[in-house]
Amino acid sequence: MLTTSEKEQIEQEIRQVPVKKAACIEALKIVQQHRRWVSDEGIRDVADILEMSPEEVDSVATFYNLIFRQPVGRHIILLCDSISCYVMGFRDLHRQLVNLLGIQYGQTTPDGRFTLLPNPCLGTCDHAPALMVDQDLYRDLAPDVLENILAKYT
Amino acid sequence: MERPLTQHITFPPLGLRQYEAVGGYQAARKAIRHMTPPEVTALVKESNLKGRGGAGFSTGMKWSFVPMDVSGPKYLVANADEMEPGTFKDRWLLEGNPHQLIEGMIVSAFAIQATESFVFLRWAYKAAAEEIRKAIQEAYDAGYLGKNILGSDYSLDMHLHTGVGRYMCGEETALLNSLEGKRATPRAKPPFPQVSGLFGKPTIVNNVETLSYIPHIVNKGAAWFQSLSHTADGGTKIYGVSGKVNKPGAWELPMGVTMRELIEEHAGGMKNGYRFRGVLPGGASTDFLVEEHMDVKMDFAGVAAAGSRLGTGTMVVLDDQTCPVGFVHNLEHFFAQESCGFCTPCREGLPWTEKLLWAIEQGQGREEDLALLASHATLLGPGNTFCALAPGAMEPLQSALKYFRDDFERHIKEQKCPYGDHIH
Amino acid sequence: MATIYIDNKAYTVKDGRNLLEVCLQLGINLPYFCWHPSLGSVGACRQCAIKVFKDEDDKKGRIMMSCMEPVRDNVRISVDDSEAAAFREHVIGWLMTNHPHDCAVCDEGGSCHLQDMTVMTGHSYRDYRFTKRTYRNQDLGPFLNHEMNRCIQCYRCVRFYKDYAGGKDLDVFAAHNHVYFGRQQPGRLENEFSGNLAEVCPTGVFTDKTLKSHYTRKWDMTYAPSVCQGCSLGCNTVAGERYGSIRQITSRYNGEVNGYFLCDRGRYGYEFVNSPQRIHQPAIRPHHNGTPSSDWIVAQAADKLRNGKAIGIGSPRASLESNFALRQLVGADHFYIGMSDMEHDHTALALKILRDGPVRTPSLHEVEKADMVLILGEDLTNTAPMLALAVRQAVRQEPMQDAIQTVHIAEWQDAAVREAMQDKKGPLFILHTFPTKLDELAARTQRGAPDNLARIAFAVSHALGAEIPAVNGLNDEERELVKEIVQALEAAERPLVISGYGSGNDAYMKAAANITWALHKKGKQPMLSLTVPECNSLGLEMLGGHRLDSALDVLRHGDADTLVILENDLYRRADKHIVDEMFRLAKEVIVVDHLYNPTAERATLILPAGTFAEADGTIVNNEGRAQRYYQVYVPKDQVQESWRWFLQIAEKAGIPRLNGLQNLDDIVWAMTVAVPALESIQELAPAADFRMAGQKIPREPHRYSGRTAMLANENVSEPKPPEDVDTPLSFTMEGFRGEPPAPLIPFFWSPGWNSVQSVNKFQSEIGGALHGGDPGKRLLEAHVNGRIPFFTEAPEPFVPMPGHVHLMPIYHIFGSDELSMHTSGIAGGAPEPFVIYLNPEDLHQWGASPGTWVNFEVDDHPYTMAVEANNWLPRGIAALNAGIRGAEVVDMPQCIRFSNVRTETI
Ligand SMILES: Cc1cc2nc3c(=O)[nH]c(=O)nc-3n(C[C@H](O)[C@H](O)[C@H](O)COP(=O)(O)O)c2cc1C
Ligand code: SF4
Ligand code: FES
């Protein structure tokens, strides 16, 4: 069940668009904001409020890589794996992250702290390699600073 | 040297009052109070401003296709999706001077008599989102947005939409689908968005850099705009360089500076111990240029004549210690992942290409693989696929096969990567 | 018209189409996947690539997708161009990278568009050497099998299911080469047209699950052109048989009727043919030892007829021929229409309106083109499913034409048209007591008691100038609705009013007639579509006969003592007590039917009748279109056409009215002589002696296999193939290999086109009529100069009567039809029998609660049923699931009074 505040936020988005369906992505974002990921139940709830079928909503949800349809950790690490970061050594960052976290792409640490995901270009190619943890962008990285960065997130 | 787009970029950016103090919102006043919408469009057409989103289509011309006599809403969208690998120019404008973009959008929206406007911003640009949200609110409060702007009959609303991933959202018709809350698959053209766009209504989609230029053109005129440039393509352009150079970064420079100037002067040349081998002149979906092209003028015609595209004008440099096969594999991996899955050649052809490159890089290449790669490069060309994603993806591949053929052949002959690389 | 050049040859073609359609129509084999004539073009698969040249001097040209390019005058294109051909081959190559290559175990094999296109493009060598991706499949319920690994992502399934049929529970998930087509969770597909996925899907992702349970390859079936028996619309089908059982029903294209599609009742409701409850042998009761021979039993029947005073009871689910033969056997004076009196009154009224009125009744194809629709008292999805699908398309008309004009695109540019239209819908008004699936498309829906809704419709006709008294006493809201409907009707160019039997209230039909007649009088061109209960209700009504209740009187008075009942379970037609009395009074009951049912249980003599699959016959749909279905195979045992039994009995009994009639052509001829209204039935199809190049038309594909071996366990010498004395079709694989006349096409096949997509080779225009015209003959045309007075008697307002409820039927696509319920998947979708729905307040007032039992009486006969609450029912109205197997028949509508409310729940 959606919480009152989720519902209110979604209703607010519905008022902005000419047809309810058009608020689909916004609604998914809202649910994800509150719960970190969108469960099957979340899909059904969004479908109900937008007068769509769960199929229609999930069709949209599964298209976008930043709507998470599986549980994720408390913090999401998005490691840029695109071309400038490739040239500038993101693979070393990746190796180091795997070492530090003990997980592969798409996995979450057993303590539920981090989920590690590859991500296309973060638009900061002049400061490659780069990654984001939640809202925070880290640039000009070298493997040895990663441990300190991760330490900031509990 | 004039740098109209970037001269007032600061971090944090200028607030509304500060922006006004440096001449901001004068163009909005001028256009809305003293010009008719067709006059604005005519001026932009005359300036010969070409879209900075990659395709380089004349902006004024694009606007002129919007039917002016239809009833109902019309839309203007700023394409701030910027997900082309190697591209980081719009971020600068978005974080550094959001009011410039908003003013550009107001004037552009006025020109096509749009009633609503959107900034379609990619998910990762968190700081930009904050600044834009703030700036939109300021513009509303100051009466530049909302009902009866500056006391005129003209009203315009503006919204910020942040995406949830997918490079496809940058393709303008896929972007519109995404704004409608749908899957970001592209639409067939015709009908063009100018006629049937967002919610089936006339819509203009322009790049952030394109729109940011509009206030300056309205303020200073078409001739001034032309005079900024070294070439027939008017204005300045934001160029960028990344890779193993001394000073990676972005700069606003007259349209038509040479590649040499960009790489050697502005980017400070190659890093110590690295040699230049090639460059993607305008993002991941442009053909490689190499040493012999150093003196190419970086404008639409100049880069095209050299066999590539100006694209976004942000370059990625390939150095002599990075394996070109791995480099191209990285690009094709990106494109294969980002294919929307709608049309066959792209959905199936790109993963195949990626796997071939992977095999070659891993030392499992076969002789016939090069022919297969080459055939994909033509088969996934423009017109054969539904949208421009796959043709774009083939540009670096086809030019790599041309310029770095030896590297590919050595991988296959030696059954390993000569650079000691492996894919990961 | 435009001139176009294809590979340097000039052709004159129609404007407005796309180049793919044009090429196909010209007979050029151009491969495609995502395009479908009913779904339009989206340009996804890139298979239909051609070269387009700027002008004569352009030698290079550009590759373009033919499905996305409109015909332009003087356009020069090439299909043979080597680059275009190479590209097309590569498209298959790409699609094959992940395809499992499991043709040998795939149900689609041999009728697979992907196989055909692979061969057509010449793709035969696999360059791809990497692994394939694999998917998990879903259980989609009893009708469709799901095998996602075979998917080639043409997007046709979702485009049909969602966009065309309005389904909600199928979609595309994920992106890039992981796109997946299915449901959000496994489960039964909810849309009533889901079965079309098996035909729409160009490969083996969605295949017919009922076929799977007795699987046979396309080339190994014996086929005949058939007509669906599921409802009154008469959709054309192809029925396939092997080893004496029906294996599969597919859609038989008919441009005027069902086009490419069928509903799930029609597609899957065939299992009754194979049912263990089939009557295979004649029987006589009290029990006779051994299996009686046909001759003996015919003699017995003839005796009974000669000695007794016989009356015949016909059937709306039997052919005209069988009904006519019975009528002649007993004499027209002794022939009774085998419908309930309600059904009979209803059908008679429909016939009168269509035959004598000045307004045309449309084909389904014409319905799709209506630009305004008013539905009165019908839940079409459940009473005439394909009509609901047609209305779905009609509702697009107005906004689509609008979009096409403002955006300058063609109708076939499907995605662009839908985008430009957004959610806009043409005017659709639905007045019905219950919610219906089409409500979501309606501009306005109005609920209420049938009489009250009919009054609104009468008021509409009055406002349009029907010469009837004004309808007084409507409230403001109702008057507003009247105004809205009138405006929409007047604004439309091709307005359509639909009504029928669905509420059991004739006032709706009368109002519908009034409305369209009034429009007609104003010089408009309205259409009027009326549903009737069964596949041959209208045909039977045209033949004529006495009312069923008068049969009881005749028996009571002793004027008859022998009943001959044709393909009819009388317990579904009338109150059990009445039927019981009829059987008590009759000395002899001769039943000719194909399934044991409660009526057959009462027979003293049973004759096994052929179903549609084992008989030739003609039926008349709700449009008055007579259509012929053909015997698919020769049944084992003594099953034969009912009419043939009657001819044999007549001969034995020496009844002159059927003298000398031997075969189908004879009886058709006799019928047209006796009933002039049926005259054009003679032209329905070529007569039995018709030959093409001196040969019969084979029911079996020329690759039919195993003929010598398939029955070797019974007899090592291959039997002589049975002969068909009734039609130009043969029961073998030998015969004419070319294209048969449209009414005689047993299956669609053309060299290189093994799947159903071969239909394009049989059409004179893509998506248009079959060569030589679509089969079927309309027997009713609007009586343009005829004047028939308006119906003046608007019903009185409905006022709940204290102590009573008005009981009305609710129909169900899965459940209300007798025969289709023998398919387990259909039965599984049917609602519970014995349940009465009531407004919760009524329920409360009756002292009942959901789930309790109630007793009530109709004509002094007691019934017991459970009650359930239903919020959308008005006070004083109760609803009962109609026709559900196991439920006792209550004539509806009916005013009932609950006599006893029990408190225990079910
Ligand atoms: C796959 C793909 C991705 C694109 N991404 C972007 C983008 O991120 N930003 C952008 O401005 N244009 C992008 N474009 C180009 C847009 O479709 C469109 O041409 C552009 O926004 C028009 O703006 P302009 O006329 O101002 O250049 C992309 C095109 C394709 C085919
Ligand atoms: S996309 Fe067209 S292009 Fe293609 S077949 Fe499908 S049919 Fe055609
Ligand atoms: S490639 Fe990593 S930020 Fe651009």
TrEMBL record, chain A:
Keywords: 2Fe-2S, Iron, Iron-sulfur, Metal-binding. It comes from the Bacteria. Its cofactor is [2Fe-2S] cluster. Coiled coil: none annotated. Binds 1 [2Fe-2S] cluster. It holds the Pfam family 2Fe-2S_thioredx. [2Fe-2S] cluster binds at C80, C85, C121, C125. One of its GO terms (molecular function) is metal ion binding. Belongs to the complex I 24 kDa subunit family. This is NADH-quinone oxidoreductase subunit E. The gene is nuoE_2.
UniProtKB/TrEMBL annotation, chain B:
GO terms for molecular function: 4 iron, 4 sulfur cluster binding; FMN binding; metal ion binding; NAD binding; NADH dehydrogenase (ubiquinone) activity; quinone binding. It catalyses: a quinone + NADH + 5 H(+)(in) = a quinol + NAD(+) + 4 H(+)(out). Residues 325-370 form the NADH-ubiquinone oxidoreductase 51kDa subunit iron-sulphur binding domain. InterPro entries: NADH-UbQ_OxRdtase_51kDa_CS, NADH-UbQ_OxRdtase_suF, Nuo51_FMN-bd, Nuo51_FMN-bd_sf, Nuop51_4Fe4S-bd, Nuop51_4Fe4S-bd_sf, Soluble_ligand-bd. Its EC number is 7.1.1.-. The keyword Translocase applies. It comes from the Bacteria. Its cofactor is FMN; [4Fe-4S] cluster. Keywords: 4Fe-4S, Flavoprotein, FMN, Iron, Iron-sulfur, Metal-binding, NAD, Quinone, Translocase. Belongs to the complex I 51 kDa subunit family. NDH-1 shuttles electrons from NADH, via FMN and iron-sulfur (Fe-S) centers, to quinones in the respiratory chain. This is NADH-quinone oxidoreductase subunit F. It comes from Chitinophaga cymbidii.
TrEMBL record, chain C:
Residues 1-83 form the 2Fe-2S ferredoxin-type domain. GO terms for biological process: ATP synthesis coupled electron transport. Its cofactor is [4Fe-4S] cluster; [2Fe-2S] cluster. Pfam families: Fer2_4, Fer4_Nqo3, Molybdop_Fe4S4, Molybdopterin, NADH-G_4Fe-4S_3. SUPFAM superfamilies: 2Fe-2S ferredoxin-like (SSF54292), 4Fe-4S ferredoxins (SSF54862), Formate dehydrogenase/DMSO reductase, domains 1-3 (SSF53706). It comes from the Bacteria. Residues 83-122 form the 4Fe-4S His(Cys)3-ligated-type domain. It catalyses: a quinone + NADH + 5 H(+)(in) = a quinol + NAD(+) + 4 H(+)(out). This is NADH-quinone oxidoreductase subunit G. GO terms for cellular component: membrane. The lineage of its organism: Bacteria, Pseudomonadati, Bacteroidota, Chitinophagia, Chitinophagales.
